[in-house]
Amino acid sequence: MITSYFWRPDGTLDSNLSREALAQVLSSGEGLLWVDLESPSAEETEVLSSVFQFHHLAVDDCLNRHVDTPKIDDYDQYLFIITQGISFQTRSARLETTELDLFLGKNYVVSFHGLPLPAVDDLRRRCQENGSLLLSRGADYLAHALLDALVDDFLPPVEEMDDVLGRLEEEVLANPNKGTLQEILLLKHNAQRLRRTVLPQRDVVNRFARGEFPALVREEMRIYFRDMYDHVVRVVDMVESLRELADGVLSTYLAAMNNRMNEVMKVLAIVATIILPLTLISGIYGTNFENLPELGWQWGYFGMLGAMAIVAVGLVAFFRWRRWF
User: Fold this and answer.
1) CA distance to 53, 99, 317, per residue, from 144 (Å)
2) What fold does the segment set 266-321 form as a domain?
3) Domain 2-257 belongs to what topology?
4) Are 89 and 105 in contact (CB under 8 A)?
5) Range(s) for CATH 1.20.58.340 in the chain?
6) In principle, which of 6, 91, 104, 126 could form an S-S bond with 14, CB 3.0–4.6 Å?
7) Burial of 51 (0-12, 13-18, 19+ CB in 10 A)
8) pTM attached to this predicted model
């Protein structure tokens, strides 16, 4: 699907432009054009090379099915930006990343993504409702809005993962089980993948905030990118804290399981210790010797049971006195 919006210099908005109209807008250098390609067909993808004439390496990065690390490539007339958005369900799925590729020119922004992104969908809806709020402020502002929306989408999953981590910590202390361990490992994996996504994205935003591209990003836009950089740093700090807490919960789980195993082994050792002298007594009186002293004693059997009971009770009392259980 390909969607296009063109904000004319006279303040009117056109949408769904043809290829010929796109070429005319690019040649005029006026207004602001936003073209969004979502899961495009091969024919729609040709717009990148035939109309915009982007470098084939940048186009190949767009078509590459593997998720690339966030970065910025400067092609003089435009910037090629790779960023990542996320899709996350706390309990039932791994964190998945979706690549968003941006081409930023003087009067256009082209976005390319293989899967739907809520941030892009929201901006498209805002353009349809009131395009002047986004498109009248320049291409660099539109690029900032897209990147900022992706960064804002990181916060709810991180906060939700933090809540889940608190619940898992309580479960570990109360009743650790294999299900709890699986949730902890899944959360650790999601936190690690989120970290690998956010850290390079922080560097991308920082390059905008430092003003490395004055030809395409105006001076007055640097404050917006600095604000977005603060948001990314906050997310990075939360992710780092989340990873440390997840490691702590995992260590607590392993310690709890070790303690439980120790309790089980202690009970088994106590039972074996109590039974051992009883087995010794029964073994002695189970020998087949004719001159066994108590063999002809009328109360020998009951005396043996009594002795075994006294030994067992004495051992239990001794263990309790030593506070072994």
Assistant:
1) 23, 16, 75
2) Methane Monooxygenase Hydroxylase; Chain G, domain 1 (1.20.58)
3) Beta Polymerase; domain 2 (3.30.460)
4) no
5) 266-321
6) 6
7) middle
8) 0.72
